[in-house]
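One such given next:

>
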Amino acid sequence: MSQAARSERTTPRVALVTGASGGIGRGIALACAAASWRVWIAARRAQEGEAVAREVDSAGGAGRFVACDVADGDSVARAIAAVLARDGRLDALAHNATSALSPKPTSLRDVSLAEVQDHVAVSLRGAYSLARAAHAPLRDSRGAYLLLTSEAGFEGKARLPVYAAVKAAQRGFARALAREWGAHGIRVNCLAPLAASPALERAFALDPAMQTRVLGRLPLGALGDPLADVGAAARFLLSDDARYVTGHTLMADGGSCPVT
C-alpha cells in the first residue's frame, strides 16, 4: 500500500484495545471512537466491557466487545479471530491490560514468585500472544501495534520492582518488533502515560505518600485525563498521522519522568 493510499482510507479503521473496560483503556477506546473507528473492547469483565462499547457507539464510533484474557494465548487468538470474522481486518492494536497487582506497593523480598508470574503473564506473555495472533492482519493492513508502558520502566520504582521490570521489558520487545516488522509495513511503538485511573487511585490508597510524590513532581501540575490526554496520544500513534514513527516511546506524563 502506497503512502497516498494509506492517507486516503475509504473504510473506518478497526482497532482492538485490551484492558479497555475502564481507566486508560476506556480513554483510548473513546478517543478512537471520536475518529469514527470501529473499536473492539477486549477485556475479561463483560458487563463493564459492553458498557464501554456502548459509549464508543455514542461517541461516534462502532463499539464491539470481545471476551479476552491476555494471559491466555488461546483466548487472545479467539479474540483476534472474532475481529476478523466480523470486520475482516485489523488496523490498530493497543495492549493496555496490566496485572491487577500493578498498583500494589511492596519490597522485592515480599514479592512471591506467583506475583511475578502474574505480572509477566499479563504484560509480557500477553504482548507476545497478541503480536503472534495479530501479525498477519496488521501486515495486511500495514497497521500499528501499541504497548502501554510506564515511566517506571525508565527510572524504576522502589516499591514497584516487578511492575517496573515488565514495563521496561515491554519497551525492549517493542523496539525489537519495530525492527523486525518494519519490512512488513507494521509500526510498533510504546506510550508511557500518567493519568487519573482506578489503578492509580488504588496505588495512592495503598501508599498515601505516593500521591504527594507523584503530584509534587509534575511540571504541568495535574494528572492527565485518560481520554483527552492519553487517549488522543494513543490514537495518534495508532493512526496514519504517525505513519513514519516506529520503535518510539512517547511520554504522556505531564513531564513527570526526567528520563527519556
Q: What stands out?
A: The CA atoms of residues 150 and 192 lie 4 Å apart. The chain has one domain: 12-250. The chain has a mean pLDDT of 91.
